Amino acid sequence: MVNQESSAALEAQGFALPLSARVVLIDLDGTLVDTAPDLAAAANHVLRSLGREPAAMPTIRGFIGNGVRELMRRALAITAEPSEADLDAAMQGFSAYYGEHLLDHSQIYPGVRETLDALQLQGRELVCITNKAGAFTEPMLERLSLRGYFSLVLSGDSLPRKKPDPLPLLHAAAHFHQAVADCLLVGDSCNDTQAARAAGMPVACVSYGYNGDEPVHCLRPDAVLDNMLELLNILA
Ligand SMILES: O=C(O)COP(=O)(O)O
Ligand SMILES: [Mg+2]
Fold this sequence. Notes:
Blueprint: H1 4-12, E1 23-26, E2 33-34, H2 36-49, H3 57-61, H4 68-76, H5 84-100, E3 107-108, H6 112-121, E4 125-129, H7 134-143, E5 152-154, H8 167-175, E6 183-187, H9 190-199, E7 203-206, E8 223-225
Parallel strand pairs: 1-4, 1-6, 4-5, 6-7, 7-8
Antiparallel strand pairs: 2-3
Helix pairs in contact: 2-4, 2-5, 4-5
This protein binds 2-phosphoglycolic acid and magnesium ion.
């Protein structure tokens, strides 16, 4: 489904649909892979080890998007805002557990692999841009046999600033010597749309990911995709 109002805004910036998108930047959590079950298990493992009640799955889903440290901070803050030292200690437990249970329940979303195959055949450069720490991003992509699709992977700790800052998007466009307007970000949350708008890059949102309780069309992306395969319909 193409958002007519924001596609008009795109045209006003000189973009036209369908998008050329020589470089397609794709978010990881909530866009390529449904990672919430294992992220929730890791956060709840820490809460239990501290003698706290585990948090419900929808609550944890709402905490995803700003990196794993922020996820853990928000989970601890259900009871009381943690000190940095307490959060450091919690992150040791989180990282040890999550590293061991990265893919117990996480799954690639329907249509993702077929879409990546098609985009690759079309000769587009693919970049994975995630706020997830690199220590988890790389093994996750490898073990799901997704790493080979991406000529560049930018994790939350790859650059000095992460989404919603536009830096990773601008870095990817420059890496491939492409104009920002000739790239496209595909994501699932306000971090993605904010980063794209700040960079001046078109953005499509999947409707099935993690954006709290807010439906993604409220973020006014240029297109909403109910399945990743719909991406192929908006590209020239
Ligand atoms: O690690 C997170 O919180 C989310 O990462 P994402 O940027 O891939 O959605
Ligand atoms: Mg995401």
